[in-house]
Amino acid sequence: MARRTANPAAGFSSPVASSHTTEPGGRSMSSSTISRRFTPGLIAGTAAALALTFAALGGSAYAQETSSEKESEASSTSGGNEKDVEEESANAYVFSPVTVTANRAARSLLETPGNVSRITAEQLDRRMDNTVKELFRYEPGISVSRQVSAADPFDSAGGIQIRGVGGNRTQVIVDGSRTIEGITDNTRDIVDTSNMKAVEIVRGPSSVLWGSDGLGGVVNFVTKDPADYFRSPDDMVAGSASASYSSLDNAYVESVTGAFRLSEAPNAVEALLTVTRRDANEPQLRTARNESTPGNPTCPRDPLATPCNELDPQDIASNNVLTKFVWSPSEGNQFRLTGEYYTRRTDVDQNAANETTATYVQTGYRRRQDVERWRVSLDQQWDVGAVWLDTLDWQLTWSPQNVDRTGDRRRTLLPSGDLEQRLDSLKYSETFYEADIQFGSSVSIGGISNTLTYGFDGDYVETEYERVDITNNLTANTTTVAVAGGFNFANADTTRADVYLQDEISLFDDRLTLVPGLRNSYYKITPHPDANYQIVPGAEPREKEESDLQFKFGSILDVWGPYSVYASYAEGFKMPTAQQLYQSLNSLPFFALVPNPNLRPESVKSYEAGLRGAFSRGFFSLNYFQADYTDFIQNFVSVAGSATDLTYDNLSSVNVWGVEASGAVQFSPNWRANFSASHMRGTKQASPGAPETNFNGALPLNVVLGLNYVEPAHGLDIELVTTLQKATTRVTDPATDFAPSGYVAFDLLASWEFMPGVTLKAAGYNLLDQRYFPADTAGFPIGADATLAVQVLNPIEQQVGFGRFVKVGLELTF
Asked: Is 1 domain-assigned?
């Protein structure tokens, strides 16, 4: 396949307000003519216009003459060659970042039969993004919800949603290693972005190469190596130190990195140590109003409680340590030992829950969340060069991860006046033992080139859940202990053992590439209920074992000059989690959570087709996708014949389809413009024969535009980013589901290297202080669904988008 070098990764997006929509509070939003015409057809029109622009600007297809030798070098490993390929394009105005996640081998993004994007370290540094919630702001079609309810007041990221599905249906990995699953009363926000070389995003099911859980897509956090800091082969020491501040949440971030070359080739040894510290408070909701439902000027919270337009006071402290030792005993052979430790503590004064009732007065609730992730990995990347084997990559990982929550609630009981203390504790952990071995072989069959990627991917996971609630009557000096509360489920061990094979077949002088693949997944989950587990007769926890064969097929065809088309079909498979299978709680007469050990695995079939153009001064990409999910697992489903029993159950189907586009133009060595866009629609069906309804996860049109000016001679880099979001007009039930309005927001990013190795950074977000609600708030309960409890514990105003804020930073490199 001829190598194209253009830049599809630098996604910047901007949403547009639709005409005459109404935001919470009743204010009418009247949009401009361009907003009224801002429809999905504009995506195709923009891509076509870009294609003509690129042709006029000069271009022959970029790097069409790249030699097959360079092609084979780029695809040989997933390690250092990635950097080499980018450096080969250094003389071009625009280059195409290399992705490893999409094909398990280094490939240009435009050589991948699917929509893949890459957020680079340079983008992260310029934006000073340090949390998952900030990371995807310029990636249309991807959203990260916020957890800010009174039941979950820690302002954690609620999960990464890709093409309408998220939570545990998005595979989140760090250097290829799994991260903890999300559960109902906990968080999956367990990754810090400070040490990342890149974040690679594969949209659409990726189970064939990455296994179960990749139904919606894969997000791979790729950490930095020592070589990323050395400026020349002669450097023995390199590193950086940086500090930044954000006015949004009063966040201070400091990071120090040292990279060392302990010995030179042919027996090279390199080491890396980086430490990052972040201290912050709760975000300020500048544009929020003290109301609980749209148009309701009254917040029903107690006068002792935090108002509806504020978050409870928080103190947040996190530490991230990354260390690596890299040994290269010979050229093309590298061993790497990685150690990583991330911890975050969030203390909350949960005043939102303060209230006066007929039986008590709650005067305080101190809560704490401790997030911790360890990872120790040993891997090898080896260019074998044998007749039957080109490359060998393997990795062994041990990664214990846990999220612990504790609380101290104080009440005065009425009418006795006794002082009561309630101590709650929730401990959730997953310990991963992982093994991954991958082979790469190039063979010619009948004169046809075949590049094979095949291997084994397996892991063993120990899952533990523990809930304890202690009530102390401080006046009467009595203590009561309750266990197995909350959303209790049985502890379990999970075994995954998969084998996979992918073939890249080149035909017609590399003008056509076919990429078939398959994976056989084996999955077993074994429950280990303790003595406190509440067994429901007929739904006793039992071992569940499944195997599944998934297929994928992709193709890329050079149709003419710089233009190519691609198409792909992919399948996905996801087993139920331990909580979904074994959750059990008796809270009668109010409700009961009943296990469902008969849950079926979720599955998806996805179709995608696209048109691309790669030019000497830019690129464009336009694609359509459709994903058909079956046996979608839904929580809190009423059990037939019972007014109180709730369980997990399989929905019949969810269907999501949409259009995505991206592009970039380099007008001159100093000026560059880019855009990316996404528009989705979706339906769901609760059971066979049931009516289809709108699926709230399908996000409407979102566009991000970027205009970038650089002046290398003065170390100046300035970018204006415009985000346009179309209003949500399709929700499951307009009477009870919130539909956010459209909006336009502007950000300004700047960096200035005013002396060698010293860079000043500044960023202003939402410069016009626009009041808006993110598109992923669609479906938030309003109307009859906004009960008094919802209005008090989870007011919609706490989901409002952030108003104007700034970040400033300083970085030293040496």
From this structure: no
In angstroms, the CA 610 to CA 660 distance is 9
Count how many domains the chain has. 1
- Secondary structure of residue 30 in the 3-state scheme: coil
In contact, 365 and 353? CB cutoff 8 Å: yes
Q: How far apart are CA 548 and CA 536, in angstroms?
A: 29
Q: Phi then psi for 274, rounded to 5 degrees?
A: -135, 140
Distance CA 170, CA 602 (A): 13
Which sign, positive or negative, has the C-alpha torsion 151, 424, 491, 372? positive
Whether a cis peptide bond, with omega within 30° of 0, leads into 140 is no
What are the mean pLDDT values of the chain's consecutive 10-residue runs (814 residues total)? 36 32 38 40 53 48 37 38 40 52 72 90 91 92 88 87 92 95 90 92 86 87 96 92 97 97 91 98 94 76 88 97 97 97 97 88 94 98 94 98 97 96 96 97 92 96 96 96 88 96 94 95 94 85 93 94 94 92 78 86 95 92 96 85 83 93 94 97 89 94 98 96 97 92 98 96 98 94 80 89 97 96
Question: CA torsion 30→36→40→45, rounded to 10°?
Answer: -130
CATH number at residue 677: 2.40.170.20
Give the position of tokens 């009943």: 594
Rounded Cα–Cα distance for residues 376 and 339 (Å): 5
Q: Would 3 be classed as within a structural domain? A: no
pTM of structure: 0.87
What gap in Å lies between CA 308 and CA 767, rounded to an integer?
24
Range of the domain at 412: 21-813
Q: Are 228 and 198 in contact (CB under 8 A)?
A: no
Rounded CA separation 692/683 (Å): 6
For 27, residues 6+ apart whose C-beta sits below 8 A from its C-beta are none
